[in-house]
Amino acid sequence: MPPGPIWKGYSDSLVFNAHPFPEHPVPTRLGVNIDHVATLRQARGTHEPEPVAAALLAQSAGAHGITVHLRADRRHIQERDARLLKETLAIPLNIECAATADGLESVVPVKPAWVTLVPETREEPTTQGGLDVLFLHAHLRQTIRELHASQIRVSLFVDPQADQLKMAAKLEADAVEFNTGVYADLAPGADPATELARLREAARLGARLGLKVLAGHGLNLQNVGPIAAIPEIEELNIGHSIIGRAVMVGMERAVREMLALTNAGLA
Ligand code: PXP
């Protein structure tokens, strides 16, 4: 079945350029980042909207995983959210956190399927750039060991650079998530060819090194196609665009629209 029928029923001004990506060996999984739902709740300090409800809607719409970022400043997701998500979801939970003692202390007891280690500063509006795996290698080796000892798989959020990937593999990370921020932030009309070539080459190297290859940051309905078409990229983590769209059309429809463009395996 081509991806068309998933979204065909919705009349909307968006133009979808859905591809079946026949060259893609496996369906591209979609991890939905629901941090922004918690941001909205925290803006009023009340109980709504409920991030767990949003995650369950994403799951019923076909999301393959849910991602949350448990930030040190707890600006959106709280430990309570992480615990409830782990208890209620049938799909894997991925928690992003800084590779700090405090980060691990909050995340390990939740026992998510995955932890993604990210750089984190209090000043940034969202994650900026990838981890410097080379610089941090000794510390990351220990952190990865601790997470593995708790049966938690580890992904490292990195820029698509060969030396970072080689070190990630040496440290026995299970996956790398490529920062697609540079690609996503290209000026309108700029040629994405160089950035896409960089991502494609890094994806090939990552897979050769035995790493699971993921990607995310700044992806939306307009720019996700060429990234979802990269055969070695197994999973995309997308938040801002899906939650922004969900405000307009509802969570399930927003997830289905993204799946129609990313999930090559629907064919
Ligand atoms: N991947 C990582 C590591 C992130 O930190 C974020 C943002 O929280 C995302 C993916 C999702 O990015 P966006 O919200 O721009 O889709």
Unreliable segments of 5+ consecutive residues: 1-20
The name of the CATH topology is: TIM Barrel
Given this structure, which CATH class is correct? Alpha Beta
Biggest sheet strand line-up: 1-2-3-4-5-6-7-8
Distance between the termini: 5 Å
The ordered H/E elements are HEHHEHEHEHEHEHHEHEHH
Shape: globular
Whole-number count of domains? 1
Ions and ligands: pyridoxine-5'-phosphate
Please describe the biggest sheet, giving its number of strands, its sense, and whether it closes into a barrel.
Answer: 8 strands, parallel, barrel
Which whole number gives the mean pLDDT? Answer: 90
Secondary structure category: alpha/beta
Number of helices: 12
Which architecture name does CATH use? Alpha-Beta Barrel
Strand fraction equals 15-25%
Beta strand count = 8
Roughly what percent helix?
40-55%
